[in-house]
Design a protein that fits this description.
- With 362 residues, this protein is α/β, with parallel strands linked by helices.
- It folds into two domains: 171 residues, 3-Layer(aba) Sandwich (Rossmann fold); 184 residues, Up-down Bundle (Dehydroquinate synthase-like, alpha domain), CATH 1.20.1090.
- It has 13 helices and eleven strands.
- Helix 5 runs parallel beside helix 6.
- The structure holds nicotinamide-adenine-dinucleotide and zinc ion (ZN).
- The site of zinc ion has 5 residues, from helix 10.
Length: 362
């Protein structure tokens, strides 16, 4: 098991290890003696891992309740949070008890939000089961729900008390979800750690072989290393900028264009896919301007291709710009973008909306 310590206003550990789920009773019992647990999950994840998790907790004599909600972004609302809060009350959960978010980013964001406001805030544990939530959503303390079709309009900063990541839970993830998570992994590689690019290549190679099942131990090992590396970077960035006012913006590499593509295609292109294309668009323009080494974009495209991610923008430059403008209209004329640099990492560049057009080479 690897441990990444996150030194935010309330510090916590992220545990990464294959098979950790089986040891959950001990992990929770030791860290939160005497606490009752309330497990929140979406219906998919509850049906796959709920029984195992609840059994592990009860075997360790931990009183455990649970609730599941319908999967999907449509459920990420105040209404679902209200139902979680009512159930917490009905189950007589107190400030000494804990909420366990078992699932993807939607579960983590909502269970974390409920934890942050129930009885003015109780502790919660993240058990991410998607690659995206393992490397991104579960660490950093952003919680929240959507409102009126707009993403994450309501929320809090509320750090988890512990994050437990078992890469074996990702065996059951649909391929498209794995690929989307890998887009975020590659993003970390681009902004901070070239070793992540090598490991991503390795994973693509292993995952390509026909005997994937037999190789799963190798997949788990590579995933463990990748997740630990990404979480370490997220931890550093979040420690430096817990409230997202500056450096945390680096994590947005590929996201400005990515969000625009998601929006322009009405969600046909998923978040991770948009990020993959967005990174290629920014790399291409940075390379054309001599801001990053020659060949950078081709190498990025090769890695993303190998992971089954799209690299070609499905909409026009004008559509991308229009979606970005609509998004940024209240934030004034300047916009921060993240571009690859000549140190082999990424830098934040502040541009006005007119110069932004020069950076969108689709
Ligand atoms: N808080 C943050 O910092 C942060 C960062 C990034 C994204 N997010 C949020 O995260 C959400 C997206 O997260 P996501 O991609 O994990 O989505 P998700 O939670 O909807 O999970 C994706 C799908 O995979 C299923 N699933 C989850 N784990 C599974 C498993 N192990 N096996 C089989 N199926 C499984 C889920 O039921 C769901 O259908 C968005 O709402 C986004 O706003 C938050
Ligand atoms: Zn993202």
């Amino acid at each position: 098991m690897n441990i990444v310590h996150v030194n935010t206003s309330t510090p916590y550990d992220v545990l990464v290890g294959t098979g950790l789920l089986a040891d959950l009773g001990n992990l929770i019992g030791r860290r939160f003696p005497g606490a009752k647990c309330f497990v929140v999950s979406d219906a998919n994840v509850m049906s796959i891992y709920g029984a195992q998790v609840i059994r592990a907790l009860r075997e360790a004599h931990i009183e455990t309740r649970s609730l599941s909600f319908a999967p999907g972004e449509e459920s990420k609302t105040m209404k679902t949070v209200e139902s979680i809060l009512s159930e917490l009350k009905r189950s007589e959960m107190t400030r000494s008890d804990i909420i366990i978010a078992l699932g993807g980013g939607i579960t983590g964001d909502m269970a974390g939000f409920a934890a942050s406001i129930y009885l003015r805030g109780i502790r919660f544990v993240q058990i991410p089961t998607t690659l995206l939530s393992a490397v991104d959503a579960s660490v950093g303390g952003k919680t929240g729900v959507n409102m009126g079709g707009h993403k994450n309009q309501i929320g809090t900063f509320w750090q988890p008390s512990m994050v437990i990541i078992d890469p074996a839970t990702m065996d059951t993830l649909p391929g498209r979800e794995v690929a989307c998570g890998m887009a975020e992994v590659v993003k970390y590689g681009c902004i901070r750690d070239p070793k992540i690019m090598e490991l991503s290549d390795e994973l693509a190679e292993v995952a390509k072989t026909p005997s994937f099942g037999e190789q799963s131990e190798m997949v788990h090992q590579i995933l463990e290393q990748l997740i630990e590396a990404c979480v370490s970077i997220k931890a550093q960035v979040v420690e430096a900028d817990e409230r997202d006012t500056g450096e945390r913006m680096l994590l947005n590499f590929g996201h400005t264009v990515g969000h625009a593509i998601e929006k322009a295609t009405g969600g046909q292109v998923q978040h991770g896919e948009g990020v993959a294309i967005g990174m290629v668009v920014m790399a291409r323009s940075a390379e054309a301007k001599g801001m990053c080494p020659a060949g950078y974009t081709d190498n990025l495209i090769r890695i993303l291709d190998g992971l089954g991610l799209p690299t070609v923008c499905p909409v026009s430059k004008e559509e991308v710009l229009q979606a970005i403008r609509a998004d940024k209209k209240r934030a004034g004329q300047m916009i921060s973008i993240v571009v690859p640099d000549n140190q082999g990492l990424c830098s934040i560049v502040l541009v006005d909306m007119d110069s932004l057009a020069d950076f969108i080479l689709v």
